Amino acid sequence: MSDAVDMRVDLAGIPLRNPVLTASGTFGYGTELAPFLDLTRIGGFVAKSLTPKPRIGNPPPRIAEVPAGMLNAISLENVGVEAFVEDKLPALPEGVTVIASVFGTEPAHYAEVCERLAEVPRVAGIEVNASCPHVKAGGIEFGQDPKMLGDLVTVVKRAARQPVLVKLSPNVTRIADMAKVCEDAGADGLSLINAVQAMDVDIRRRRTVLRNGLGGLSGPAIRPIALRMVWQAAQAVKIPICGIGGISTPEDAIKFLLCGATAIQVGTANYLDPEAAGRIADGIADYAREQGFPRVSDLVGALESW
Amino acid sequence: MLSPGEVTNVRRDDPLLPRPMAVFRQRPASGPESPSDVEVLYKVEGRGTALLAEAREGARIRLVGPLGRPFPTPRPGARVVVVGGGTGIASVYGLAAEAPSGSRSTLILGARSATDLMARADFEALPAILQFTTEDGSLGEKGLVTAPLERALAEGDVDTVYCCGPTPMMRACAERAAAAGVTCVVSLENNMACGFGVCLGCAAPRPAGDYALVCRDGPVFDASEIQWDGLP
Ligand SMILES: Cc1cc2nc3c(=O)[nH]c(=O)nc-3n(C[C@H](O)[C@H](O)[C@H](O)COP(=O)(O)OP(=O)(O)OC[C@H]3O[C@@H](n4cnc5c(N)ncnc54)[C@H](O)[C@@H]3O)c2cc1C
Ligand SMILES: Cc1cc2nc3c(=O)[nH]c(=O)nc-3n(C[C@H](O)[C@H](O)[C@H](O)COP(=O)(O)O)c2cc1C
Ligand code: FES
């Protein structure tokens, strides 16, 4: 078709078929959703965050529904980097772009996973989940302290071979400062936002709904917060941004592109409709065509001022 | 074809997360738009099921499924006891309906009272020995499902107990079966988000100290694989 929109984007050196990725922790290791969604309809996916060794998560209840969103406290549960490389990656169909997410309770754990992934060509990029509590620093998230965050990025950049996206925690006062710290420490791009710290209470049982007490809020409830943070980060840095938070429709995704995101990730919406990311990619292309943008990358940061 | 114990995730536009529902029955298509009709049996518990109940004919409802592992098929010739309580009766219906010929099933259904028991006529039409229990005695035996279960187990020839219902009921049935040295298969009803093994939200603790995912590894489990104390 002559008026086909060029949907390709370059996210920090990771070439993507289209700007729609799926978010870590909401898409498993890729094969789980393959019965429902042709994985070549989307730009790629970010796998569940990995630690050096397999980890089990928190006792249940781990999830709860809240208005327009959900709370989760899964903790570090994952198969470990070795099983990811040996079992999960080979099970994926060809032509699917994979970004590996890493986390740990110490910088050395992040580095260990990145070093293991350095020789794995199937992994196109690394996303650093900075919303993990730093055990030696009393449990504060890496992403909540500028010094800790900068040091973490330095360690990861030294260990990683692939482009590095740093996934920012929204549980901070000034997101722009955190974005800048990452850029200065050599991050190739940013992903934001992770889930927003929150809680809820069951008044009949007089207990928190989650066994863990606190959890992360995700879903449409956080979308306006996420959009604001993406916009602020985009003003503050030159490195590309991947927008995340409550994206459920093509319209939601387009807003993030207009506010400066080069690509976006679909998270909680995958649970409601495993085809959501595919529909979002199609809908962005339709919009770009209707609005006369030959390349989807022309939409990035195209927000008009009043 | 859907199998007894399989689950679908049912959703209208609101609330956010889909609601897991057992496949009660599958029938040939009633209209040209549907490859086949899936029946679920549900009780209005809160917002999700209330909105479902308000849906008019022709309303669009999204189903994702079939999800999870179904009940193992009873062995031909074996005597099985099938126990259902609350909305759990929906998952066990197919077990009794599709039992291989020659197998003998006893179906025990428990409810708070006669008016809480859904689809009674459908269960009465099944080729099984049917026993009702109600807590108020308004239908069948007054009391809990465990009393007729114990009597059936005492007869000594039970091969497997199948069970779906509230967690305390399943736990009690599993304990009775274990005491009699009989395998017990349960279908858990933990809250879910995705239903296909990616959110890790539906974890059920196992005796080894790790977790099974109810949506992927279950919802049907051998009761010995479950650490009942840690279930929400
Ligand atoms: C594998 C599985 C199969 C199920 N099969 C059936 C079925 O065939 N028919 C049926 O009517 N129900 C079934 N349920 C339970 C059903 O999913 C819940 O009743 C439903 O989620 C309630 O939603 P709601 O929005 O109406 O209520 P909510 O407002 O969400 O909750 C109202 C009440 O229901 C309870 N509840 C919420 N979710 C669940 C749940 N998942 N399990 C048990 N209690 C819950 C809450 O604790 C609360 O007390 C099944 C659940 C699972 C996990
Ligand atoms: C159940 C669940 C598990 C998650 N696990 C991870 C994870 O392992 N690593 C990570 O970086 N983010 C994780 N997230 C956060 C999401 O990737 C995403 O940043 C967040 O949910 C906001 O996007 P959404 O509103 O579209 O879901 C998880 C989210 C949920 C709901
Ligand atoms: S409901 Fe998501 S993993 Fe089971």
Kindly state the percentage of residues in helix of chain A.
25-40%
What is the fold named in CATH at topology level of chain A? TIM Barrel
Strand tally of chain A is 16
Q: Bin the strand percentage of chain B.
A: 25-35%
Low-confidence stretches of chain B are none
Summed over residues and divided by their number, the pLDDT of chain A gives a mean of 95
Number of helices of chain B: 5
Q: In CATH, what is the homologous superfamily of the largest domain in chain B?
A: Nucleotide-binding domain of ferredoxin-NADP reductase (FNR) module
Shape of chain B: globular
Q: Which molecules are bound besides the chains?
A: flavin-adenine dinucleotide, flavin mononucleotide, FE2/S2 (inorganic) cluster
Structural class assignment of chain B: alpha/beta
Secondary-structure element sequence of chain A? EEEEEEHEHEHEHEEEEEHEHEHH
Q: What's the CATH C level of chain A?
A: Alpha Beta
Q: Count of helices of chain A?
A: 8
Report mean pLDDT of chain B, rounded to a whole number.
89
CATH architecture of chain A: Alpha-Beta Barrel
Q: Order of strands side by side in the largest beta sheet of chain A?
A: 3-4-7-8-9-10-15-16
Name the chain pair with the biggest interface and residue counts per chain: A-B, 33 and 30 residues
The largest sheet of chain B, given as strand count, sense and whether it forms a barrel, is: 7 strands, mixed
N-C termini distance of chain A: 35 Å
CATH architecture group name of the largest domain in chain B:
3-Layer(aba) Sandwich
Which keywords apply here?
heterodimer; A: 306 residues; alpha/beta; TIM Barrel; 8-stranded parallel beta barrel; 8 helices; 28% helix; globular; B: 232 residues; Rossmann fold; 7-stranded mixed β-sheet; 5 helices; 14 strands; binds flavin-adenine dinucleotide; binds flavin mononucleotide; binds FE2/S2 (inorganic) cluster
Question: How are the secondary structure elements laid out?
Answer:
The complex is a heterodimer of chains A (306) and B (232).
Chain A: E1 9-11, E2 14-16, E3 20-22, E4 44-46, E5 63-66, E6 69-72, H1 81-88, E7 98-102, H2 107-118, E8 123-129, H3 146-159, E9 164-167, H4 175-184, E10 189-192, E11 196-198, E12 201-202, E13 207-208, E14 215-218, H5 223-236, E15 241-244, H6 250-258, E16 263-266, H7 269-272, H8 276-290
Parallel strand pairs in A: 3-4, 3-16, 4-7, 7-8, 8-9, 9-10, 10-15, 15-16
Antiparallel strand pairs in A: 1-2, 5-6, 6-14, 11-14, 12-13
Helix pairs in contact in A: 2-3, 3-4, 4-5, 6-8
Chain B: E1 7-11, E2 19-22, E3 25-28, E4 36-39, H1 47-54, E5 62-67, E6 79-85, H2 89-97, E7 104-111, H3 120-124, E8 129-134, E9 141-142, H4 146-154, E10 158-164, H5 167-179, E11 183-187, E12 203-205, E13 211-213, E14 220-222
Parallel strand pairs in B: 6-7, 6-10, 7-8, 8-9, 10-11
Antiparallel strand pairs in B: 1-2, 1-5, 3-4, 11-14, 12-13
Helix pairs in contact in B: 4-5
The complex binds flavin-adenine dinucleotide, flavin mononucleotide and FE2/S2 (inorganic) cluster.
The site of FE2/S2 (inorganic) cluster has 13 residues of chain B, from loops.
